[in-house]
Amino acid sequence: MVGRSLVLIVDDDLSVRESLPDLLRELGYAAKAFPSAEEFLASNCVDRTACLILDVAMPGMSGPDLHQELRLRGHEIPVIFMSGQRDEAIRLRAFEQGAVAFLFKPFSDAALADALQAALKMA
């Protein structure tokens, strides 16, 4: 992990948690996935995170709720939201609250790579 930006995924979908870290590693990032916002917050990764990829809708704390909680705690981590629900109002609200990018599932590898480049320029 030395020298590579740590990108974390928080998504309740097991298939996303299994596949997305592999793609991120192929793109040259260190990656780790969590099944919930609560598990991410309880981890020792918060302070080392260069970018967060958050699912919008999850049981318990949602992606937008986690983003807000991190900001309240003083963590200004660039966030890329993703959602399987094509809801333009949710997308716009995410940008209003400071999201770097918003990807609708399924998204292309190129779209993710572009979003990560934009996010890491802010880190």
How are the elements arranged and paired?
Blueprint: E1 6-10, H1 14-26, E2 30-34, H2 37-42, E3 51-55, H3 63-72, E4 79-83, H4 88-96, E5 101-104, H5 109-122
Parallel strand pairs: 1-2, 1-3, 3-4, 4-5
Structural write-up:
The protein contains five helices and five strands, in the order βαβαβαβαβα. With about 120 residues, the protein is of the alpha/beta class. It has one domain: Rossmann fold. Helix content is about 40%, strand content about 20%. The model has no long low-confidence stretch (mean pLDDT about 95). It has a five-stranded parallel sheet, with helices on both faces. Strand 1, helix 1 and strand 2 form a beta-alpha-beta unit. The protein starts with 5 loop residues before the first strand and ends with a helix.
Strand order of the largest sheet: 2-1-3-4-5
Q: Specify Rg, calculated over alpha carbons.
A: 13 Å
Task: Report mean pLDDT, rounded to a whole number.
Answer: 94
Q: What's the name of the CATH homologous superfamily? A: Response regulator
